[in-house]
Amino acid sequence: MGLEKVGEEGxxxxxxSYGEIGNVxxxxxxxxxxxxxxxxxxxxxxxxxxDDQDHLEWQEHVRNQGYGVTEVKDRNYFNALYFRxxxxxxxxxxxxxxxxxxxxxxxxxxxxLMLPEQYESRREALTASLIPIEVRTLT
Length: 139
Fold this sequence. Notes:
alpha+beta; 2 helices; globular
């Protein structure tokens, strides 16, 4: 998945990707019991790609490695595909574009709850349980 091994300590192995953020992952090299759903459980690991072409190349690569991979899903702010590795961890590979500024300006990001069109009919129910937040400008 484009990771470089950069360290090892005890039963932990550290890998780094080329990305600027979220680019370090530590993997426990010794077996663990099967995980259970609950607080603190990882649902999936997301990887990012530059654009649609890069996305399709990864889809083909994953398929050629013998994994069942989904078709590309339009998630409004990005496109995504999914597969499970042999340990059954769910991986998502998502594009950077179109990005979160595709339906609002960069200057107003986070000031309003933006929903993909398919969820607008559920806006009232979805917002009823949200805790109010205040977006602050840091100086």
